[in-house]
Known about the structure:
There is one protein chain. It contains four helices and three strands. The model has no long low-confidence stretch (mean pLDDT about 90). The longest helix is centred in the C-terminal third of the chain and has 32 residues, at about 80-110. Helix content is about 55%, strand content about 15%. It has helices spanning about 5-20, 25-35, 40-55, 80-110; strands at about 20, 60-65, 70-75.
Amino acid sequence: MDTPLREPTFLILTALAAQPMHGYGLIGEVAALSDNRVSLRPGTLYGALDRLVDAGLVEVEREEVVDGRLRRYYRLSASGETTLSAETERLRRNVEAATTRLSKRTRAALPITPRTVGGLA
C-alpha cells in the first residue's frame, strides 16, 4: 500500500501502533484520535481491516470468544509500522511547509510602523 494513506486508514494504523485492539476498540480509538471527526461503521472498519491484512500492514494477533461471539485482535505489522512512519514523516513535512508559509504571510500582513532612528520618524 502506497502513501498517501486515506485518513481512516492512517488513523487505524495509528491506533494499532499503541497496542493490539479488537474491532470495536478500534472504532472508539479512531473516533478519539480524530476528535470524533472520523466515525467508522463496523462494516467499513472490517472491510478496511481485511484490506490492511491482505496488504500485510496489519496482522491478526489472536482470537477469543466473548459472550458467544468471536473477537479478533489486530496488531500493526512491521510493514505497517514502516508505512505509518513514512506517512507520518510526509505529513510532518507538509505541515512544516504550510506553517512556514502561513507565518510568512502573517508577518507580511502586519502593519509597518515607522521606527525612530536618530530622533526622526
